[in-house]
Amino acid sequence: MMQWMCMDCGYAYDPAKGDPMGDIPPGTAWEDLPEDWKCPDCGSPKSEFELIEM
Amino acid sequence: MMTLPKLEDLSDPDFNPFEIEKLSTGHCPDPYPRIHELMQQGSVVTGSYRDEFTEIKDVQRDGVPQVMVLGYDAVMHVLTHPEIFTNREAFMPSLGQAFGESVSVMDAPDHTRYRKIFQKAFLPQVVSKWGETVVDPVVNSLMDVFIHTGKADLVDQFTHHYPFQVIYAQLELEPEQAPVFHKLAIAQLLSAIGAPQGAEATKKLGVFFGQLLKLRRENPGTDLVSHLATVEADGERLPDIVLISFLRQLMNAGGDTTFRGTSALLLGLLTHTDQLDAVRADRSLIPQAIDEALRWEGPVSSTYRYAICDTEIDGVTIPKGTFINLVLASANRDPRKFANPDSFDIFRERKFRSAAFASGPHLCIGQHLAKVEMTRALNALLDKLPNMRLDPDMPPPQMIGHILRAPEHLWIKFDS
Asked: How far is CA B307 from CA A47, B42, B67, in A?
């Protein structure tokens, strides 16, 4: 399974779950996250994420 | 067969850093009533968290003006604004003395560069492979000692050993060197109270890791040192001085915290048998049980930052040069974020992330490995110790400590 992962801390964004604690509802595609969205754990920008095989 | 370097013991081999470390932090079974009182006073309170609970001074910060920052929003504000609240000045007098140039004493841009390289070795897809190859053998060998006896002290016979043995296995160290290794790792921290054994341990571990690094570079294997010596991010490798400092810190940051976190998880479940039964029946509850245990009794209650400019926290003026003593435990027990914050409830509604692994750029590098270790350990205990329960003939377990917390004993019985 491929997942977008923050290379600075290992947080994996799952579109099916979204990020309810960060007001990102379930079902939000990676592409639909705002460009200024940041990793909810370490604060790195979207550009630090890579699509990783899990 | 490759000959590994020999780790030199302290010049006084009878010096017991475990007892000294315990004495240096005082006897504190429950800091939370005082933490709640302090939170009532506001987000910023003059003084240090340590001074609330012990008269034994932290000589590395004694006399330095500092404030405690309390409550979830204020703590998170500081952790997520590294451009204002820095690590280098905050930790150079303490962790910098004990470990050297570790990532904990760095700020951007060095921290950003080096952390990315370390993190690459500890990403979830990397550490998950260690679960079967490294963690399970350690967990099973420790349990083999007591599995047929029907009872055990899970702290003395299990949690106090397995995270450290996982590190030894990752480093592929000789087992007979493990006791001295563990002793020197703990002794490093005693520079905080002025014990000369602190600097001695730091020096001897540095010599040992320098020799080990040279050996692994010449003969790379599958161990963690070989991996860290060759791992790259954006075409860059780790300098020796940074890698040796990281290895010095590994036992404390990766071993001691996982020992305490696992002990809190087991204590929480064993003292809340309905939740233990639920987890036993449905292992998909383990991740939320771990999250709750680390919120409820996070292994590290307090940390530091340093204000590099005049600023404000929750409307309170913070002058440049102030040491900021962040009370992580207050964030995790903030009633404005967590209902009934003092209760252990794996089913609580989760609206906010806990501060157990901190937040922001200095988020714990090893959090994914810690979760793998705790998951594997709990699954093994539930699988192999039928009807695991507290031993009614022994004293009930109690968390101890105000900065680093863990129970001293966790006596259990099980059907054998």
From this structure: 28, 19, 11
- Confidence at residue B307, expressed as pLDDT on a 0 to 100 scale: 97
pLDDT by residue (tens digit) across B44-99? Answer: 999 999 999 988 777 777 778 899 999 999 999 999 999 999 999 999 988 888 89
Which pTM was predicted?
0.94
Which pLDDT belongs to residue A31? 96
Which residues in B lie closer than 8 A to residue A9 (C-beta atoms)? 119, 363, 365
Q: What CA–CA distance (Å, rounded) separates B219 from B207? A: 18
Please count the CA atoms within 13 angstroms of the CA of B368 that sit on its side-chain side: 23
CA atoms within 13 A on the CB side of B296: 25
Element (H, E) at A36: none
pLDDT of residue B24: 63
B232 pLDDT exceeds 90? no
Closest CB from B122, B123, B353 relative to A21: B353
Average pLDDT over residues B18-42: 87
Q: In chain B, which residue's Cα lies nearest the Cα of A44? A: B361
Predicted complex ipTM: 0.95
Name the 3-class secondary structure at B198.
helix
- Residue A52, chain B, CB below 8 Å: the answer is yes
Best to test chain A binding among B80, B125, B130 (most A CBs inside 10 Å): B125
CA B283 to chain centre: 24
Helix pair B178-187, B196-218: axis angle to 10 deg: 130
| Beta strand pairing call for B389-390 and A2-6 | unpaired
Q: What is the pLDDT of residues B159-180, one digit of tens each?
A: 999 999 999 999 988 888 888 9
What confidence tier does B18 reach under pLDDT thresholds 50, 70, 90? confident
Does A14 lie at the interface with B, CB-CB under 8 angstroms?
no
Name the 3-class secondary structure at B203: helix
Closest residue on chain B to A54 (Cα): B125
Preferred mutation among A42, A47, A54 to probe B, highest tally of B CBs within 10 A: A42
Measured distance CA(B57)–CA(B116) in Å, rounded:
35
Residue A32 distance to chain B (closest CA, Å): 22
**Tokens 């030894």 correspond to what residue?**
B168
